[in-house]
Amino acid sequence: MSLAQDRDKENLQISEETFEIIRHIAELFRVDLTTSQLAICVEILHREMPRKIKKHSGELEKEEEKLRSAIDDIHRRIKQVPEMKDKVNESLSAIQGLIDKNKLSIGSKISGPLRSKVINIYTNAKEACAAEENFLRALLTDIDNVRKVQYEIRRSTQVGRGELMQLIAHHARTAPLWIGPIDTHPPPLVGGISAPETMDLKVGSEVAAFIDGIWILAEVVTILPNGKYEVKDVDDELTKKHLIKRKKLIPLPHWRADPLRDSHALFPLNAIVLALYPQTTCFYKGVVEHVPEVSSDDYLVAFEDASFSQGYSPPLPVPQRYVINHVLPKQYSKTKRRQ
């Protein structure tokens, strides 16, 4: 096979490594390649390059630069947290000092200058606490935005399905924890609280999509004017897209529920759910065998599986993000009823 001609390599501008790969393939199949055939092979190799090589694109480099800048800004702002905490503690100490000095208690009647002083001190303390809360919530929001960008960058550069599965699981377990105001109910998409079917989805949102008779982990890529959505399987490197109605999409939880604060936002024991089977991107029917006890815990889910004598698999860990309401699409339900 005459592939080692220097002019061929120079004209096609391919690396020695690529050239050797093609040569070995040609030898394996015992075929001779002409210069034009070599060019076709090079084009195919470049088109099918693993995603890891794509990370050097200009667009991705810009994203990484923005990411580094955002992380630096977060580090700078984190250093301000102790200072804000000190201000809160000082204002609370002032309140306690005033109470001790004037021997105040709940129900005490206060008037005159003392009343004005108490109101002023309490107002300052309330403002300090509110400023600290707003600062921390904004900081946590920015941290979550960085987490999402890192996830997208890593997902676009991952090589190998095993690494992708690990990334998906890590992304779920590091989802933000819902910490709402006191005496408020968690909103939809906290833990097991589902969103209404009328809720619009955003581009980039991860969903469970009912495609070809199975629920898969997918990403919304386009929102069409007719109310349909274009989604792609997160595990499909060919980026094949599917056109699907909203009723066949289930948005995934945005936040983890804290069992110590919002246990009512979690699925109860023995609840029938759809859960992402470990090391796959498919959701299957299962039963909750164990509910998270702390915010870092996973559910334990027994999946419906006829290969086991009891009809269910042994309990397997599934992060909160990938445990959702069990839903049967309407057309599927009608088909079952006719039978």
Could you give a quick summary of the protein structure above?
This protein has helices at 6-12, 16-28, 35-47, 58-78, 81-102, 112-157, 161-173, 330-338; strands at residues 206-211, 214-223, 229-233, 241-244, 249-251, 272-276, 282-290, 299-303, 316-318, 323-325. The chain has 339 residues and is an alpha+beta fold.
End-to-end Cα distance: 63 Å
Total strands: the figure is 10
* Rg from Cα: 28 Å
Indicate the CATH class of one domain: Mainly Alpha
Tally of individual helices: 8
What would you call the quaternary organization?
Answer: single chain
Mean pLDDT: 82
Order of helices and strands: HHHHHHHEEEEEEEEEEH
- What would you say the CATH architecture of one domain is? Orthogonal Bundle
Shape: globular
Runs with pLDDT <50, length 5+? Answer: 1-14, 45-55, 332-339
CATH topology grouping of one domain: Helix Hairpins
Question: Could you describe the largest sheet, including whether it forms a barrel?
Answer: 10 strands, antiparallel
Estimate the strand proportion: 15-25%
